[in-house]
Design brief:
The protein has 12 helices and 14 strands. By secondary structure, it is an alpha/beta fold. 39% of the residues are buried.
């Protein structure tokens, strides 16, 4: 079986390559846009001399390069997506890129398409959390977002990406596995998810309070992706990915202060955040958009509504957390502290 991994040189992608090799997969094509990011993949490949790890350079915005990347491939791990930039850039690197990749399957014979599997890495951002009562549990049966235009551009693009993949699955008949990670973190990742709070200038506004964080340590997330993506019974299914023993936003912030550095913060209770968001939304309307609607009651409910999370379905495939949550947080904070010291020298 020959495997394609898009976004292979990214934060999550390199760990997925490592776990695929650790599971014994020997024919892997790594699709990446920037040749300067190939060194890490080359280092990983050297640890498995019996495997053939191929580096394939290109841009998923190009249909011809998508077709070239898929030659001989029967299993696709589609990690590549836009993470930053304008809404147009996010849609181009997420929705349009996914359409180009999947449409490249159209030229295959129907029987061969039916044996091709696409593992789509989606996001918790597709859930319509604002429509749920406070404290509701989110699992794979929870409703998805019906108002993506009210969300942030990243969530909007991931919602449209998942809808596109499902539409093309019905039309083309390939196997689709949808994986929805929570907050992916680890050494080399970001320090804070917006679920903890927002940094505005020199002040951090702590908005998460006692809400659980759906954290997924990058090694644990990669293991879940490989297990679900290759499991014979996973086709046609959706799986939430997050770790066990989830900390609250307050616990995460406390451990960050203890192990990385002290930061100035102001904690805003949920009801105050909701009240402020209404004021900002009203001013946005009255000013005809002069003040961006960066915070609205809808966005507040999505991020800080106190949801609980369920990964029972993932455990049903036999997934087990490789790195316990306390160890994962310790590794992450140790790396952050060392990076701060390196930058200070």
């Amino acid at each position: 079986m020959k495997i394609l991994v898009t976004g292979a040189a990214g934060f999550l992608g390199t760990h997925v390559i490592s776990r695929l090799l650790a599971h014994g997969h020997k024919h892997i094509r790594c699709f990446l846009r920037d040749p300067s990011k190939a060194a890490r993949l080359e280092c990983i490949a050297r640890l498995y001399p019996d495997a053939h790890v191929e580096l394939c350079y290109g841009n998923l915005r190009s249909r011809s390069e998508c077709a070239r990347a898929l030659e001989g491939i029967s299993l696709i791990f589609h990690l590549a997506a836009g993470l930053r930039g304008s809404p147009a850039e996010l849609f181009a690197d997420t929705v349009i890129a996914s359409r180009n990749l999947i449409e490249a399957l159209r030229t295959r014979e129907e029987s061969r398409r039916g044996n091709t599997r696409l593992v789509l890495i989606s996001s918790f951002g597709v859930y319509g959390a604002a429509l749920l009562r406070r404290g509701a549990r989110i699992d794979e049966l929870s409703p998805t977002e019906t108002h993506p235009e009210w969300r942030d551009p990243y969530s909007h693009s991931k919602i449209r990406q998942e809808q596109l993949a499902r539409d093309l699955e019905r039309e083309l008949g390939f196997q689709l596995v949808v994986l929805r990670p929570g907050v992916i973190y680890g050494p080399g990742g970001g320090a804070f998810s917006s679920r903890v709070g927002l940094q505005i200038g020199s002040m951090f506004f702590h908005l998460g309070g006692r809400n659980l964080l759906p954290l997924s340590f990058v090694e644990n997330c990669a293991e879940a992706i490989v297990m679900a993506g290759t499991h014979p019974n996973a086709a046609g299914n959706t799986y939430n990915i997050h770790d066990d023993d989830l900390p609250t936003a307050a616990q995460y912030l406390r451990e960050y202060r203890k192990h990385v550095k002290p930061i100035r913060s102001i904690r805003l209770p949920y009801f105050i955040t909701r009240m402020l968001s209404r004021i900002l939304e009203n001013y946005h309307r009255r000013s005809q958009g002069q003040l961006p609607a960066v915070l609205t009651p809808y966005k507040v409910a999505c991020s800080w509504g106190g949801n609980r999370f369920d990964n029972t379905k993932l455990h049903g495939l036999g997934w087990k957390q490789l790195v316990p949550t306390p160890d994962a947080m310790q590794k992450t904070f140790d790396h952050m502290r060392q990076e701060l010291r390196r930058l200070a020298d």
